[in-house]
Amino acid sequence: MTLKIHIDESAAPYEQVRAQIAEQARSGALPVGYRLPTVRGLAESLGLAANTVAKAYRALEGDGVIETRGRNGTFVAASGPAAEREAAGAAQAYAERALRLGLTEDQASAAVRDALRAAYER
Questions:
Q1: Distances (CA, A) of 61 to 3, 68, 76
Q2: C-alpha–C-alpha distance, residues 18 and 16, integer Å
Q3: pLDDT tens across 14-27, in order?
Q4: Positive or negative: CA dihedral 21, 67, 89, 121
Q5: Which residue in 82, 48, 73 sits closest to 18, CA to CA?
Q6: CB distance 56 to 15 below 8 Å
Q7: pTM given for the model
Q8: How far apart are CA 96 and CA 94, in angstroms?
């Protein structure tokens, strides 16, 4: 991962970090699952305050570009076609599990609709 921060630009440093990571994730330069440096590590390498990088990471996480997995670190999240492939895999696993549980197609579909409604209405 290569980032360049220009202090003399009109964009705030955290915004530059956010925009560059987002662009690299979208372009595939940072592949899905790529582990990002720690906040402190990236801040040191860029000569920025840790809070500046933390703010960029929070914005990226809010946008769904990255995901934090607790102590395991921060990773590039699935998006676009990669997210659709991951969702398709999860749906296939669910369908197989519902079948093993003896649910009818209508029961399995109802469970999915309820879960989606609950998740998207937050």
A1: 18, 8, 9
A2: 5
A3: 999 999 999 998 88
A4: negative
A5: 48
A6: yes
A7: 0.65
A8: 5
